[in-house]
Amino acid sequence: MTQFRKGLWRSALAAAAVAGFVTSAAAQMELKIMAPAAPGGGWDQTARSMQQALTQSGIAKSAQVTNVPGAGGSIGIAQLVNNSKGDGNQLMVMGYVMVGALLTNKSPITLDQTTPIARLTTEYEAIVVPADSPIKNAKDLATAIKADPAKVTWAGGSAGGVDHIAAALFAKAAGADPTKINYIPFSGGGEALAAILGGKVTAGISGYGEFESQVKAGKLRLIGLTSAKKTANVDVPSIKEQGIDLEIANWRAVVAPPGISADQKKALTDTMDKMAKSKEWQEILKAKGWEDAYVSGDAFTKILADEQTRTKDVLTAVGLVKS
Amino acid sequence: MATSPQRRVDVAGLVIAVILLVLAAVVWWDMSKLQILSPYDLGPKVMPIIVSGCLTLLAIGNAIGALRGDLPARDSLDWKPIILILGALACLIVLIRFGGGFMIGTALLFAATSTAFGRRAFVTDFIIGAVIALIVYVLFAKLLTLSLPAGPLERLF
Amino acid sequence: MEAFASLADGLVVAIQPANLLFALIGVLLGTAVGVLPGIGPALTVALLLPITFKLDPAGSIIMFAGIYYGGMYGGSTTAILINTPGESASMATALEGNLMAKAGRGGPALATAAIGSFVAGTIATLGLTLLAPYLVDIAVSFGPEDYFALMVVAFVTVSATFGDSPVRGLTSLFIGLMLGLVGIDLLSGQSRLSFGVPELYDNIEVTTLAVGLFAVGEALYVASRRHIQEEKLEAVRGSLWMTKEDWKRSWKPWLRGTMFGFPIGALPAGGAEIPTFLSYATERRLTKHPEDFGKGAIEGVAGPEAANNASAAGTLVPLLTLGLPTSATAAMMLAGFQQYNINPGPLLFAQNADLVWGLIASLFIANAMLLVLNLPLVGLWVKLLTIPQPWLYAGILVFATMGTIAANPSPVELMMLTVFGVLGFLMRRFDFPIAPVIVGMILGPLAESQLRRALSISLGDPMTLLQSPISATLLTIALIALVLPFFLKGLGRFKAVED
Q1: Relative to the CA of A37, which of A92, A200, B21, B74 has its CA 20 to 30 Å away?
Q2: pLDDT over 50 (residue A212)
């Protein structure tokens, strides 16, 4: 109790102090991290992990997570660009999914309007089936989808997202028509997971983290990850090693609002640099099974531009974007 | 109103019917612009079609009611308090939109509403409203670190 | 029974003075934030996460549970007293509860809400203790077609909220369904009725709609009629407490509300709104005092209040057993668990038994605390109604707008609140019922996406709705509920429909 009250007092006093006379920005930021997704999903977990690492290590004084869910992040980015212009304490978690979502939603707002800060992690997509499914491996799934793509139902995240793209690419690699896949979007990770566990769909596709505890408990069978080679945290060879030419990674990154000053950008980048090296962040990466893919500054800006071009090509090819 | 032997046509009721018809048209027009159709489910158009169709039917239903003069009786209306409250809400929106902070706007809303309800102590009520706003601001912004729209007044605290 | 032995161990954890204190802080905070529309338990837990990570896991998770239950209480207090539901789960409560308060029966309304919540919360927590592993299997077996059938049942039963004119009731419902279309369509990723306004891509916030229609609309309406009749509020008429009659009329709704709330809350896409409205509609059908509905019937408060608290406990079933967060607050609690590297899921009961049972035990304690805190406060709360009318309504509007901007500080949100306020005013003036708008907006999008998912899975074959036993049963219930009144009431209703 005393600890709790002290904490409350301390934060109240400190907040009052900062509001009174702004201290050096870079040293102890009061960050606001927006997760442009519903609580519980991948971006939300990333935002909350950042919050944990930043505050536990003392790199930031506070980090407040807000959720702005919907449509693969189109709403979140709109809010970031429209409402947070020039706010040097605001970050938004985003990822590969958003690159595609902005295209499929014909969003008037593009990632070029944000200020790229850093890429944090990559996570491979996992394909799972219910434990009692007759499908044992990637080959079985490929055979089924080639026979009739309509009969293989996929549960995953929002339309046009990385889950959707990966499912389409899997169908293509299996020799089926990718525009004919029967992909069913669910809102949030929980609902899709329930549908897979209940055997309502043939397969589920999402980041491995969302399935891990169910796979370990034996309720779901892991078909494979979309990595090039088998990773250390799973027992199953990658989908590519099983002979289906599918390789896709869902990276996650943070961007800042438009219109921030060079100093503000530097302060944010420095904070992220420090966080990425911190013991706390590294522990979280290990616990969550996320692969460290930290890149900041101009290198990340270039990656973001390249991915936008590549994704547009993929989406047009599978018919998710009409050019 | 419906007491006269020959039931009078209710103009307001007809306006409601027209509004419903317009809404139905807007829903239909918006639906017609959707492009991506899912291959296996009903697609995004079915629900708007149902809503638009039913709104049209309900517009007809409401119009019939209005022509028959079936609407429930209405009392006379005092517009002044409504304009006062809506005006204060508009001020609040404008103040927040242009960075005036929410405190002045909230105090204004409090005073305007209490005036609308017949009090004649605008200044006193304005101060009461400001105090309430201040308490809430301190509670939220400082204790829970929640961001409320800030203006010049809020930055003093 | 093994569960009871574990629960006893849990109680030992929960009644440690420090943990009791956390539970107390939790319920107080929860009640406070539940009172404000827009600020709910989810947001509070999110805001407190960074503060609590230094505390020990048991303490902070117990506090979060207190916030969760407390929020459910706080929301109903404002719903009853000032017609401003703090949470979407307390909307059904506002319907009869506020009428009771206006009739001077705010005391019994608050009391039946508090006691009903306690009863429901206790039974549901007991259900969580004993049935969680079995319930979760059923919950997971619920497919999209079954959810759709559940929505159909809800749609049919909410016709009870239509008032006396079916045309006007349906008009309200379809306005709600239209509002539900606004935003991005989940299944195709395209925006509908958004006109390129990014704020509209995100669906309309239910609390903004409810607060606009209920609170702002009512303030405008009352203000516009002041010159005709001064509304005199009598804070207490008759007994401040529940009479014997009140008890007699409340206990069955409490139990029935629990039966709706707990299982539906345990469904991964169940939520708290559907059971509360189902409970309201059921009580309206079953009551021996149908003349009271529309004037403040205690059954209409007792049932929904029990339902919303029971659903809160139900939500913990998939969270603890599967790690499935099925509500925003549950997702926050999941984040709370994860911050201590505890992963809810199939292994949680085995790996962190102390913590889980401590949490469940503290749910019982939080519940009892809320009852003890709230009952004595009833007298004080009711005094709120004796505030002079100008200040009361001014205060309501300030609360309504502040809650809205605190949750989403955007002028567009406030504009929506104002527009919905005007809509609520006009609907009152022309005698359109308000509740169906909210019901339509909540249920419409859910029903649409579940039906489309079900048809996707069956490749467009509508027979899937009848092939699933759950769905077939629910649809039969819906059919009976639809047809029965016609048989009972003869052709009188048919005439009204044609009107």
Answers
A1: A200
A2: yes
Give yes or no: residues B86 and B43 share one domain. no
C439 close to C176: Cβ distance less than 8 angstroms = yes
* Residue where one domain finishes, among candidates B68, B90, B108: B68
Same domain flag for B111 and B51: no
Using pLDDT thresholds of 50, 70 and 90, give the confidence band for residue C498: very low
Best B108, B144, B148, B154 residue to mutate vs chain C (most C CBs within 10 Å): B144
Phi, psi of A204 (to 5 degrees): -120, 145
Chain A 43-72, residues with CB within 8 Å of chain C CB atoms: 44-45, 48, 51-52, 55-56, 62-72
**Contact in structure between A125 and A204 (CB atoms under 8 Å):** no
Kindly state the helix (H) or strand (E) to which residue C68 belongs, with its residue range.
helix C57-82
Fold held by A27-122+250-317: D-Maltodextrin-Binding Protein; domain 2 (3.40.190)
B122 shares its domain with B56: no
Of all helices (H) and strands (E), which one includes residue C453?
helix C435-457
* B151 located within any domain: yes
Q: With contact defined as beta carbons under 8 Å apart, do B118 and B132 qualify? A: no
Longest dimension (CA), chain B: 66
**Mutating which of C173, C184, C224, C431 best tests the B interface, going by the most B Cβ atoms within 10 A?**
C224
For C:43-82, CB contacts with B below 8 A are 43-44, 47
Same domain, B114 and B91: yes
Is the same domain home to B141 and B87? yes
Q: Find all residues with CB under 8 Å of C461, minimum gap 6, and list them.
A: C455
Residue B103 lies in a domain: yes
For chain A, the structural domain boundaries read: 27-122+250-317, 123-249
CA distances from C252 to A215, C245, C282, C287 (A): 43, 13, 11, 10
Q: Which residues of B touch C405 (CB under 8 A)?
A: 96, 102, 148-149
Neighbouring residues of C173: CB distance < 8 A, sequence distance ≥ 6: C158, C162, C436, C437, C439, C440
Contact in structure between C129 and C314 (CB atoms under 8 Å): no
Total domain count, chain C: 1
From the list B46, B65, B44, the residue with the least C-alpha distance to B54 is B46
- Determine if residue A294 is left, alpha or beta; phi over 0 gives left, psi from -120 to 50 gives alpha, anything else beta: beta
> Does B64 fall in a domain?
yes
Q: Are A165 and A314 in contact (CB under 8 A)?
A: yes
pLDDT digit string, tens, across residues C448-469: 989 999 998 888 888 888 988 8
Pair (B146, B84) in one structural domain: yes
Q: What is the CATH number of domain A123-249?
A: 3.40.190.10
For residue C259, give the nearest of C309, C200, C332 by alpha carbon.
C309
Give the tens place of pLDDT for each residue, A302-322: 888 888 887 887 788 766 676
Rounded CA-CA distance C332/C382 in Å is 33
Helix (H, G, I), strand (E, B) or coil at C165: coil
- At B32-82, the pLDDT tens digits run 988 776 677 778 889 999 999 999 999 999 999 888 877 777 777 888 999
Which residues contact residue C104 at a Cβ distance below 8 angstroms, ignoring those fewer than 6 apart? C234, C235, C236, C237, C238
Per the structure, the count of domains in chain B is: 2
Phi and psi at A33, nearest 5°, equal -115, 120
Task: Kindly list the partner chains of chain A, i.e. chains with 3 or more CB atom pairs below 8 Å.
Answer: B, C
A-C contacts (CB, under 8 Å): 162
Q: Do residues B89 and B148 both lie within one domain?
A: yes
CA distance B22 to chain A (A): 27
The question of ipTM being above 0.85 is answered as yes
Domain around B107: 79-156
In a domain? residue B1 = no
Helices (H) then strands (E): counts for chain C: 23, 2
**Average pLDDT over chain C, rounded to whole?**
82
